[in-house]
């Protein structure tokens, strides 16, 4: 096992043993490692050569902890709105001696208003539909940067409902990058940021889900 995988297995054990908060639906370190942590590895090829990246709605730290372990040269922020999850992940990061990570407890809309277009990449796993995720992430990313999210069998439905409205967020039409075996529906969706996000984004917390930007 590589040094990175060894560190990540220790992380799986910490997730499995955590009593502070419900951080993953998967039970047991082996299962967490195989089904959750290793599932994040295909996203590594989309990370920038250098700079700052943010994992939004990070929960127990996925995929951000995986990114930090494999890419200690990057400055990585984990963002989540639930304090007990943030506190648990702070303990994990300290125990694993990860040095290139900041953990922030905030709603993404509030954080984006203060840190507008600071990041080279923003990512999310199991945050919201593709359209809502794009609205929440685009205000955080520099022009020329990228956003990404993990999706499953509903990916085509979620992309098609937005149709050609992505440029309202300063984004190019998304690319769908499937991974896993031939029958897998697992997909990493990526968008290039081609122009500044309009000033009316981010909207106030909760509005992205309740009033779709493309409707």
In the sheet with the most strands, the strands line up as 3-2-1-4-5-7-6
Mean pLDDT: 94
CATH topology: Rossmann fold
How far the N terminus sits from the C terminus, by CA atoms, comes to 49 Å
Biggest sheet record: 7 strands, mixed
Count of DSSP strands: 7
Query: Oligomeric state of the chains?
Result: single chain
Spell out the helices and strands N to C.
Answer: HHEHEHEHEHEHEEH
Secondary-structure arrangement, i.e. CATH architecture: 3-Layer(aba) Sandwich
* Rg over alpha carbons: 16 Å
Q: Looking at this structure, what is the CATH superfamily?
A: Vaccinia Virus protein VP39
Defining traits:
215 residues, alpha/beta, Rossmann fold, 7-stranded mixed beta sheet, 8 helices, 35% helix, 20% strand
Description of the molecule:
With 215 residues, the protein is α/β, with parallel strands linked by helices. The protein has one domain (44-209): Rossmann fold. The protein is built from 8 helices and 7 strands, in the order ααβαβαβαβαβαββα. The chain has a 7-stranded mixed beta sheet with strand order 3-2-1-4-5-7-6, with helices on both faces.
Draw up the topology in text.
Elements lengths: L2 H15 L11 H12 L11 E5 L7 H7 L4 E6 L2 H14 L4 E5 L2 H7 L4 E7 L4 H8 L3 E11 L3 H8 L12 E4 L8 E6 L14 H4 L5
Parallel strand pairs: 1-2, 1-4, 2-3, 4-5
Antiparallel strand pairs: 5-7, 6-7
């Amino acid at each position: 096992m590589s040094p990175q995988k060894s560190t990540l297995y220790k992380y799986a054990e910490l997730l499995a043993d955590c009593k502070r908060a419900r951080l993953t639906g998967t039970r047991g370190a082996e299962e967490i490692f195989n089904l959750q942590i290793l599932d994040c590895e295909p996203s590594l090829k989309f990370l920038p050569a250098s700079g700052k990246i943010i994992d939004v709605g990070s929960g127990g730290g996925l995929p951000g902890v995986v990114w930090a372990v494999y890419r200690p040269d990057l400055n990585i922020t984990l963002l989540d709105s639930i304090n007990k999850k943030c506190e648990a992940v702070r303990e994990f990061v300290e125990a694993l001696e990860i040095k290139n990570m900041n953990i922030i407890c905030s709603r993404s809309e509030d954080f984006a208003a203060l840190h507008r277009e600071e990041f080279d990449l923003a990512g999310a796993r199991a945050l919201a539909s593709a359209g809502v995720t794009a609205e929440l992430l685009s205000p955080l990313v520099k022009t020329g940067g990228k956003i990404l999210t993990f999706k499953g069998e509903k990916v085509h439905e979620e992309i098609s409902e937005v149709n050609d409205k992505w440029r309202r967020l300063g984004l190019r039409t998304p690319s769908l990058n499937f991974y896993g075996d031939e029958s897998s529906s697992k997909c990493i969706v990526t968008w290039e940021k081609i122009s500044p996000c309009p000033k009316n984004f981010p909207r106030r917390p909760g509005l992205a889900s309740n009033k779709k930007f493309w409707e």
